[in-house]
Design a protein that fits this description.
This protein is α/β, with parallel strands linked by helices and 277 residues long. Helices cover 39% and strands 16% of the residues. The chain is built from 8 helices and 12 strands. Strands 2-1-3-4-5-10 form a 6-stranded parallel β-sheet, sandwiched between helices. A two-stranded parallel sheet has the order 6-9. Helix 1 crosses helix 5. The N and C termini lie far apart (46 Å).
Length: 277
């Protein structure tokens, strides 16, 4: 019997890719509209919760609502077989390691610490809910997102469309970047797995790439100008390499290389933006 699939946040960047992959596999997918009360009366089947929000400065209550409150209601009231909660490896900021079972420190000087706190609360609600739950922590996600504020899609878009990229970080600023295709694929693997209940998994490329490496590639492929601005954040390059041993060993996860992928992404942006213009 085919399972029902429900994707909260299914119109967003990660969610829409999960929906697309499930549909391509021949599944029917339900994407609940905002404030849909039927989610508490129907069988949701297998669920991915990727309805997160991150603007801590302008909309702190929306961050809490999306990352925790709606999730808590679903965990308490909804009928489902399994739920995958999309968290974030941002919680490893300024840590020395990134194992899923390590202790986490919240940084007082992090302006987006509310995001980290709500993601951790969301994770804990899931793990304490006595439901069939898995937590997926993706690193910095990239892909063909024409309006996304995420770092890599936005600077790629600026390089192609404006011919100028303003970098408000240091050249040594480095992070782990993961393709949205890989994140969606990992979420679907956890959805159908029978052996990952109440586990946490990182999904990432497994290596960090510096802002200088990305800028050099963008400049070489598009001819754009890179403007480096002084960074006031002393900790802006403090992200450990993401440990992906669990996904690799249990699911054979082999991620894409962001620098190889970025060349193709630039071409995709060029094609799409040409059509829009």
């Amino acid at each position: 019997m085919m399972s029902t699939y429900t994707i909260f946040g299914g119109r967003g960047f990660i969610g829409s890719e999960i929906v697309s992959q499930l549909v391509n596999l021949g599944h029917s997918v339900f994407v609940p509209p905002r404030d849909d009360e039927t989610i508490y009366s129907k069988n949701l089947g297998r669920v991915v919760y990727c309805a997160g929000y991150g603007d801590c400065e302008k909309s702190p209550f929306d961050v809490l609502e999306a990352n925790c409150i709606l999730l808590s209601k679903i965990l308490e009231k909804a009928n489902f077989e399994r739920l995958i909660y999309i968290s974030s490896t941002r919680i490893y900021m300024n840590q020395t390691d990134s194992r899923e079972d390590m202790d986490i420190t919240i940084c007082n000087d992090d302006p987006r610490r509310l995001f980290n706190l709500t993601k951790l609360v969301g994770e804990e609600l899931c793990l304490k809910s006595r439901r069939d739950i898995c937590v997926l922590r993706p690193s910095n996600v990239y892909g063909l997102a024409l309006t996304s504020p995420l770092f890599l899609p936005s600077i790629t878009r600026n390089a192609v469309k404006e011919g100028v990229v303003n970098m408000y970080i240091s050249k040594s600023y480095s992070k782990d970047y993961v393709s949205v295709i890989d994140v969606a694929n990992a979420a679907i693997k956890l959805l159908i797995s029978e052996n990952s209940e109440k586990k946490i998994y990182n999904v990432a490329s497994g290596f960090n790439v510096s802002a200088a490496e990305i800028a050099d590639l963008l400049s070489r492929k598009t001819g754009c100008k890179i403007n480096w601005h002084t960074s006031n954040n002393e900790n802006d390059d403090q992200f450990p390499i993401t440990n992906i041993d669990s996904m690799n060993k249990e699911f054979g996860f082999i991620p894409r290389n962001v620098l190889d992928d970025l060349e193709n992404l630039i071409e995709e942006f060029q094609e799409k933006l040409k059509v829009i213009d």
